[in-house]
Amino acid sequence: MKHIFQIVVVSVLAALFALPAQAAKYQEMEVADGGSISGQVTYTGKVKMRTVLPTKDKDVCGKARKEPTILVGEGGAVQDAVVYIKEIASGKAWPEMARPVINNVDCIFEPRVQVAKRGKVDILNSDPVLHNSHGYYGKATAFNVALPFKDAKVTKILKRNGVVRTDCDAHGWMLGWVVVVPNPYHMQTGADGNFMIDNVPPGDYTLVVWQESVGETEIPISVQAGATTDASVQLN
Amino acid sequence: MKKIIAIVSVAAAIGAAAIVGLSMQTAGGKTGEVTSGRSLFDYPATTGNIDPVLSEGIEVTPRLLEHGEWVFRGLCIGCHGASGDGNGAVWELGDLYAKDHKLPRKPRDFTEAVYKLRSTPSGSLPTDVDLFKSISRGLIHEQDMPAFKFLPERDRWAVVAYIKTFSDRWEEEAEWQEDPIEITDPPPPDEDSIVAGKEVYALMQCEQCHGPVGKGDGPSAPGLEDDAGLPIVPRDFTDATQFVGSSDPKGIYQTFTTGLDGTPMPSFADFLDETQRWQLVWYVISLRPEFDLEATRTQMMSATKGKQVAEASMEQ
Predict the structure, then answer these.
(1) Chain B window 167-226: which residues touch A at a Cβ cutoff of 8 Å?
(2) Does the complex come out with an ipTM higher than 0.85?
(3) pLDDT for B193-224, tens place per residue?
(4) Ranges of each domain in chain B
(5) Would you say the pTM of this structure is higher than 0.90?
């Protein structure tokens, strides 16, 4: 009984300490006279290649190959960049977002890059070999789960905002990304490299453009009511 | 300036080592647990009672945090550093400090708040009791985290509270914190459970890292790294002294269920039932050359019987 009481005390204290963090949480509100941010993410530099060298389970994981560290299409358009507003206290409602899925397919994470909101993530194994999907916020383990056989599925929680890099200790070359965004003002670029973020309350913001090999590029922007701000960015 | 701080830190660390060594010798005199003269770094960390006895926690007050900082600066700073990032003088100046004490693993970086030994799911912060236990029992000698169970319990709780101040994860993730797993008392092993455990070992693909007979030599073993980017090897199950967590049945159960965050060891929380978990535990333990099934079984049965008798007499 004494223990339970103390656990309660500790929990209450923890809850009290947690209040400032919660206060900083994104607030949904009606946006009148919102503006938009649009543009294209491009890259004109040399595309670095990464060597993928399967050392085991080769019948499933395939042969040695090279893959680009940045997906560049026509006119330098960058696919799979994630664009989002760094800090915004309040604004439009979150859209319906499907629970993110990290699937291990032929020793490749599918999708390679995705955007998610803080919360649950499903991790699947479509291969008949042991995978362990190991996600990190920077250096800090976000999850490290074994998927010992085909169709194994684990649900974990992405507890913080930020970029989660996923690798597999069993297959060291595997690499995937989940960008856990802090607000609904975000977009992942497609093959055309374009992005469009709407319904932004007028004001000055920092736009973050993240790409897996370039990292984060920050752009100061100013959004006016009813207008579209061009925030095209050339990564280097 | 940095150099001066480093030198002062080294001095502090040596001082701390001396104090720890002294205290451990005292403790050793009573319990016979200190086996040789390497003081700070020689201890069988897996023995003795490391559970908190006073309480499951002490109220965190400014006074307690202040006390925690004082203890930390005395005993922890040498390895973990003044800012708690694991870059203490003993780590930074490993070669200069003492070659035979060079730490093979980077001391825990409390600013990341990633901990190996947790009763909570992978990716979760540990409980206060988890931290208390790690401080008390230390980690295996390869990690060179000494056992601090000689410290008064209040000192250890104070350090638990203080090291949590190095990361904002404790506040930020409070609403997402996951419950610890529950571990019951292990059932006594028998031949069938060990045979079944071997099948679980195969089904869970443990051999990919730990090898076909648990020597730590599986096909995925080469090239593994920890979160500091340093080479790390899978445990050799035939040597109980090398386990990172507790090498007893409950410790092994916890390790493969929650994983060792910050290392390649993943969590196998989702694919096994309770029976299979204990089968795997006993199979892993059975790989030790000194394991004696009959003796273990008899001992556990009589302990259970003794407990039942004691409980029965309590009821009367």
Answers:
(1) 168-178, 203-205, 208-209, 219-220, 223-224
(2) no
(3) 999 999 999 999 999 999 999 999 999 999 99
(4) 2-176, 191-308
(5) no
